């Protein structure tokens, strides 16, 4: 017997023909589907229950909620809480202008060096942004005034001079100014009255000297005048001893061919550079902080203080060239 194409699917359900025959066929089909669904759900529930009962807490399929990891700060004392770091804090004052390649090396190097020695510190980059000639002494004066009440001693520190010997002392100079870059160790300057490069002194002692003279525009001579201030204030100068690395104690990273220093002497500056400034210093410093920025260089924090100095050209006409 031949069947039309419409009837072929019915042949596959020949055994169910009677069940599907007659009236209410749609309702019977719906009821059958519901029975199959209920049976499937019951079987799934029983199988899952059996699997769970055979699993142990060590089974990797079992997810156990773990307690959150402890906060790192809970078990580690900060430098401010660690008494081995001592009670003092250093303001590392760096007079600066357009020496960014050196700054990128200096800040992370000094931060690591001082941390190894457990010296509390903050690095202040006093960046001169006015149109006058560079004035290292005035910028150090600004660093002293802007260093905040949380520091009690200064390091007058050149940006191009890195200490290589970990035996060098950067601690609190209670007895008097401590010249880290002494003439016996500095790679370039070896005369006895030299106090440049790196000099540590308490804020109290710096104030006793009235800071540094503001008359030195251009490069050099401000350190020599400051040496006279130290003597006038009757402060004993100290220098390192027991350092056996000689002139290799520091790395001087300045490139004179790339960064030429302003060594010009104009007008009366040639004569005035050798004179003592008896009244100038912190008392007649004139400046304005243009902006202050907190930066991190390779993970080392520092503060950039963009500073505009003021110049009385009737007193120091050599603050400008040309």
Give the SSE map.
Elements: H1 8-11, H2 17-20, H3 25-54, H4 72-75, E1 89-96, H5 100-116, E2 120-128, H6 136-146, E3 153-157, E4 161-163, E5 178-179, E6 198-202, H7 203-208, H8 222-232, E7 250-252, H9 269-272, E8 287-297, E9 300-309
Parallel strand pairs: 1-2, 1-3, 2-9
Antiparallel strand pairs: 3-6, 4-7, 5-6, 8-9
Summarize the entry for a quick read.
This protein has 322 residues and is α/β, with parallel strands linked by helices. It contains nine helices and nine strands. The radius of gyration is 39 Å and the shape is elongated.
Return the average pLDDT rounded to an integer. Answer: 81
Read across the widest sheet, the strand sequence of neighbours is 5-6-3-1-2-9-8
Treating each run of at least 4 consecutive H or I residues as one helix, how many helices?
9
Which regions contain 5 or more consecutive residues with pLDDT less than 50? 1-22, 51-77
Question: How many beta-strand segments?
Answer: 9
Biggest sheet character: 7 strands, mixed
Ends apart, CA distance between termini: 120 Å
Query: Helix/strand-derived class?
Result: alpha/beta
Elements, N to C (H/E) = HHHHEHEHEEEEHHEHEE
Relative helix content: 25-40%
Strand content: 15-25%
Radius of gyration: 39 Å
Task: Write down the overall geometry.
Answer: elongated
